[in-house]
Automatic annotation (TrEMBL):
The chain crosses the membrane at residues 112-132, 152-171, 200-219, 225-245. This is Uncharacterized protein. It comes from Salix udensis. SUPFAM superfamilies: MFS general substrate transporter. GO terms for cellular component: membrane.
């Protein structure tokens, strides 16, 4: 009997069961989505938020600090005036140092960041002095002879005020300048946006000032000093957080030197060449540096005879060094 081999129909795939290979695409992959440009109103909104909360906190402190020192630290007379005036004067002097460090070494972003942190820590210290009775002398309403604050209690108070003064030195000189860095002033659109930014900056400053002098001051004097100082501390924390959230949108410029150093160089150079006469210096010429590509939209000031003595700083007396 012959062996008949029967083919198993189930073992051989049919044409319908064969999966066709995927089509081969010779087109290039789609390009990634373009990144959003830094700067402009995309970043300014964070800067305005940082400025608004910082001003609300600082103005709320300044408006009622003397009342706090008088009622909670039993200060009066010369001590009260000295503490307030020294602190107020310090907050107006530290911005000069902050501006110098920002232009020469740190840059505006880092200076703003350090200033915001310092202001927040100082406000937290003041809120703690209001919430912890051990950090201040005993209250004595209606008593003529009140307990004076101890040295360590004054040390805690002064440390908080000092941190706030340092923070003001970092925030005040850099906030509006950092906002101006976000616009390209070489174009007509950028200059128009910069003018609009200044308007919004002063508007937010005015609104913050009104809220600080009404709502915050009312809470401090009529509700609670703890809540009244916790509100500015929360505002400074919000200011810091908002500023960090917008970091990926900022145009961060590198430190480019400070005008004070340039002025000092001019004075020193003019003094070194004081023996050289401008009228008889026929063999010399004034150094006139060309504008860079980024400064092509800047118009040079016309040369005048005002403060002509300082022209000696620009006299080229060593052509080898210049060439």
């Amino acid at each position: 009997m012959e062996n008949v081999v029967v083919a198993d129909k189930t073992s051989s795939p049919s044409d319908d069961d064969i999966t066709p290979p995927p089509p081969v695409s010779f087109l290039p992959p789609p390009p990634p989505p373009p990144k959003k440009a830094r700067g402009g109103w995309r970043s300014v909104k964070y800067i305005l938020g940082n400025e608004s909360f910082e001003k609300l906190a600082s103005m709320g402190l300044i408006a009622n600090l003397t009342v706090y020192l008088q009622t909670k630290y039993n200060m009066d007379g010369i001590q009260l005036v000295n503490v307030f005036n020294i602190w107020s004067g310090s907050t107006n002097l530290t911005p000069l140092l902050g501006a110098f460090l920002s232009d020469a070494y740190l840059g505006r972003f880092r200076t703003l960041l350090f200033g915001s942190v310092s202001s927040f820590l100082g406000m937290v210290v003041l809120a703690l002095t209001a919430g912890m009775p051990k950090l201040r002398p005993l209250d004595c309403p209606g008593v003529s002879s009140c307990q004076k604050p101890q040295d360590w209690q004054l040390g805690v108070l002064y440390s908080g005020l000092g941190l706030i003064a340092v923070g003001a030195g970092g925030v005040r000189p850099c906030n509006i300048a950092f906002g101006a860095d976000q616009f390209d002033t070489g174009t007509e659109k950028g200059r128009a946006q910069l003018e609009s930014f200044f308007n919004w900056w002063y508007f937010s400053f005015t609104v913050s000032l009104v809220i600080a002098l009404t709502v915050v001051v009312y809470v401090q004097t009529n509700v609670s000093w703890v809540i009244g100082y916790a509100i500015p501390a929360a505002c400074l924390f919000s200011s810091f957080v908002i500023f960090l959230i917008g970091k990926h949108t900022y145009i961060i410029t590198k430190p480019h030197g400070t005008v004070f150093i340039d002025i000092a160089k001019v004075v020193v150079g003019a003094c070194k060449k004081r023996a050289v006469s401008l009228e008889s210096s026929s063999g010399y010429s004034l150094y006139d540096p060309p504008l860079t590509e980024s400064d092509q939209h800047v118009e040079k000031l016309a040369h005048t005879d005002v403060f002509k003595f300082f022209d000696k700083a620009a006299l080229i007396t060593d052509f080898k060094r210049v060439g």
